[in-house]
Amino acid sequence: MRRLRIAVLTLESTASAEAAARVVRESRHDVVFIGLSDPYRGGLARTRAMVVRSGPRILPWMVVEFAAPRLLRARPGGPLMDAARARGVAPVALGDVNGESARAMVAQARPDVIVTCHFDQILVPEVIAIAPCGGVNLHPSLLPRHRGPMPCFWAAAEGGAAYGVSIHRLAARIDAGALLAQRAAAPPAGASVSAAARMLHQVGAAMLVEVLDAMAQGSERGRDLPLLPYCPFPDRSALADAARRGVRLTDAADLRAARALGGVAR
Q1: Is the pTM of this model over 0.85?
Q2: Locate the Formyl transferase N-terminal domain: which residues (predicted)?
Q3: pLDDT tens sequence across 166-176
Q4: How far apart are CA 263 and CA 256, in angstroms?
């Protein structure tokens, strides 16, 4: 099996930090680049737009996922930074992955494949093409269902919907590339949306490590999927309907998980 050169792109969050760290730590290939998206890019205008769409119910989820791991951090870094240091790779902040400077940094690393895990920026085809083997993404849903940024919410909101993880090729459309691997995995009964996302990202990390090995051996086989509707961030009505049926975006256990990412005792 040849060793691939891997560029990992992620958005450090409570949902995905441990999973991204696992990919960096456990892959048998050479991690040559780690790019971190900034959840606060766009400043207050971006946050305000999300709150206008989703209403105040979305705020606790945003705090637990993105703010708490940073605000409660007791030491520099976290699991992803620890894994990066062990690899000898310094993560780089990416304000715009498709911008000229980011493209140049990725190209300089000469990756064979680009891996995205909870990365909230859409790569244009020219960036994907930097890697000869293209790109692969971890998505916590059973594609083609629940394409979009909060698939665990939509699975919970549907009630009785199947949960799972898909590893798929990056393509010009969101969560629409050829399927490389898929596994059903049910979170514990009563789990919050945040808890379900954490669990599914961990399942997906192990799958992603296996897919990279298959790519190195030339044995991966993609399967095109039908394109079902895109599921955006939920609006006020969807959140209210889900809350009436007992769906919780987050809870105290999720806050403890966020604290633990920063090295604060549970």
Answers
A1: yes
A2: 102-212
A3: 999 999 899 99
A4: 11
